[in-house]
Structure formats: structure tokens, C-alpha cells
Amino acid sequence: MERRKILIAGGDIRMLYAALNLSDIYDVGIMGYSEEMLLGEGKEIFEKLKKTDGNADVLLLPPVVTDKSGKINAPFYKKTLEISEVIGKVKESGVLLMGIKGEEAKEAAARKNIWSYNYMKDETLALANAVPTAEAAIKIAIERTGRTIWNSRVLVTGFGRIGTILSDRLLKLGADVTAAARTEYARMKIKAMGAVPAKILPAKSYLSEMDIIFNTVPAEIFTFDDVMSLKKDCVFIELASAPGGVDKKAVKAIGNNYLCASGLPTNVIG
Asked: Most distant CA pair in the chain: distance in Å?
């Protein structure tokens, strides 16, 4: 019996691992990767798989579907990958599996009678994905600050999946962690895990003591005045989706100490 065809387009090294595992059962094709941009296992997996495929039954897109330019998120591809290009390789009445920021892909699929599903709505998968996101965020913090996480004063705003795992990893690395949450229940969980609980945004005097801030709240909770109270060398890492957690004027004021890293671990895992 002919095997069903799956096309995997764009994404980071995780998508190549998915392609390799799925190739045991399905006829898998990949696109959105340039061999010269891959190293180690990523390159080895790439060489084992078909480079392109059309007339697919299923299209699998990355956990974060599009980048800032609205193209398919393909950090290991020298060219750009258009939504219309990948949708065009799927059969009518096929299936689109995708993550967040995939509204345009979903609309394009609907015009071709392709059923779509956001797999990041699966709580188990979303929780598993929070682990590499947290680890990638810590990697960025170490690189940008040039210091150890140990003994650093760190604030994590938001205590959802990513905030919880990030706080846990930071504590285990020896950071002095404050985690901010809206509910009393979440703040009790923060206290129970050994971090300092705070309301969603601590006082300015407290903010001024932080070395690193990770924001996971997709709402502008940091005002211009809040940001002006930060130390000059405090690094602010934005993990939330748009609009992010900082007033836009304040982002300019922070300058190079503000890093927009929503969509991690794309570009980091390798």
C-alpha cells in the first residue's frame, strides 16, 4: 500500500528530528533548509531525507509558523519560504498541522479546502516545548550578560508553562529568582518552589536591583518609568508574543539591552 506523504517545511532542528522519526511510517519530504547552514546531527539528518516533495497529504509547519516578515519561519534556509509556496504543495482536502502565528497559513489552507490544526493547543506538547524555550532563554542571558546565572538577581514575569520551567531552571543554576504572577495561588506555588513571589510587577525600587528580566506576559505591563528604573546593565529578554511586555518607547530607551526572543528556541537549538 502506498504510504501517505508528509511535507515538513521550515523550522529549526526539531523539525528535522520529527522528519526522521516520521520517515519510518510515512513518505516524508522537507523544504526550507540549506545544507551549508546545518551542522552536526542536523546536517546528517538532512542528508538522509528528501529535499522537496509535492502533492503532500499533510503539511507540517513549525511551532512558530511565521517570522517577523510574515514568511515561513526557516532559520536554516538561505532564501525565504512563502506561505503560498508551501500550501501549493498540499493536495486539496489535505491536512495542515502548525503552531502559533499561523493565521495567514490557515486562511490560505482554507481556500484550498485544507483542514488545519494548531498542535500547540495540546497542553502536553506545549509544556514539553516550554523546556527548550526556557533553556534557550538562559543561553541568551548568559551570552548577553557575560556572567554566570549563579548569584544573578533575576525576575521572571508570568508564571505559565514557560515561566514555571524557567524559574525552576534558574533556581537550580543558583540564581536569586523572583517570579511575578497575578493570582495568589500561583504566588504560593512560586514560594513553595523556593523563589520569591511577587505581584505581576514589583515596585520600581525592586526592579532597580535586577540583573536579568525575563518577560512571558503578552501585555505591556512595564511602563516607561518602570524601565527607566532598571540598572544600565540589566538585560531584558522578551519571551512573550506580540505586543510583548514593554511600552514601545521604553524599548528604544533600553536599546541593546532589550532582546526580543519570542518564538524561542528557533535559531538557538542546534
From this structure: 68
Cis peptide before 218 (omega within 30 of 0): no
Please write the tens of the pLDDT for every residue from 74-111.
989 999 999 999 999 999 999 999 998 899 999 999 99
56 - beta bridge partners?
90
Judge contact between 153 and 209, C-beta under 8 A. yes
Reported in sequence order, the residue ranges of the chain that DSSP labels E, i.e. its strands, are 5-9, 27-31, 56-60, 90-98, 115-118, 153-157, 176-180, 196-198, 212-215, 235-238, 258-260
- Give the predicted TM-score (pTM) of the model: 0.76
3-state secondary structure of 258: strand
Domains and CATH numbers, the chain: 5-121 (3.40.50.720), 124-260 (3.40.50.720)
CA distance 264 to 203: 28
